[in-house]
Structures are given as C-alpha cells and as structure tokens.
Amino acid sequence: MWGNKDNDSLNKMLRTQLMNYLVGDGMSLNQLSRLTRKTVKELESDLNHLEKSLKHKGARLGVDPALCRKCGFEFPNTKLHKPSRCPECKATWIQEPKIFVKDKVELEQDFND
Ligand SMILES: [Zn+2]
User: Fold this and answer.
1) Ligand 1 centroid from CA 82, angstroms
2) Which of 70, 98, 71 is nearest to 82 (CA)?
C-alpha cells in the first residue's frame, strides 16, 4: 500500500526521538506531549511500539510511579497517567509518573558476566 514505507520511517524517527528523551531521568507523558506536539493518546501507542523495539535491544521502559507531593504517598500502579488526587490526603498536587529507558549499558554488563 502507498505511504506505508513513509509511515514506517516516520515512526522510526519518532521512536529514536522518544528514546533520546527518555534516557536518563525520563519524562512524563505531558512533557513528551509538549516536546513532540503529539497527544497523550498518540504517545501511549508510540511508547508501546518503542517498548517492543527496545526489547529487541535488551532494554526496557520503566515507570517511576506518581507521587503525592503533599504527603509522599506513592501510587501503587505503574500507569502512565497522572492520578487526579491523592487517596490519602486528597491533595491534587501530584508529581506525574515518569517514563524512562532502563539503562541499556547496565544490561549489557550483565550479559558480559
Ligand atoms: Zn497525599
């Protein structure tokens, strides 16, 4: 079909871009959305694809869970969306979950042992 090849290379570029953003401290979905001008929904599907290609390279996506900035409550799930309020203290001052690429170098060192 027409256009498939273009889409593929476009996706590849985006995935490389995403990976560069997510190496190190990582970023929240909203930060990524601002940087890539994509919607959070689009990014979620992109991240799924990215995770698949990372697996082939022996790396993984990790998520730092959301935190309540008021009482420090750590949200137990690893959802990518920011929860609206803290179940403990009802505060809405929530630190967004951060997505990051788990250190590939570390994984490679494991393989060398
Ligand atoms: Zn709280």
Assistant:
1) 13
2) 98
The reported pTM is 0.75
Domain count, the chain: 1
Residues of the chain with pLDDT under 50: 1, 3, 105, 107, 109-113
| Spacing, Cα 83 to ligand 1 middle (Å) | 11
Contacts (Cβ under 8 Å, ≥6 apart) of 56: none
Residue 109 Cα to ligand 1 midpoint, Å, equals: 38
- Distance in Å, CA 14 to ligand 1 centroid: 35
Give the Cα separation of 3 and 23 in Å (integer): 30
* Residue numbers of the domain that contains 68: 4-112
* Max CA pair span of the chain: 54
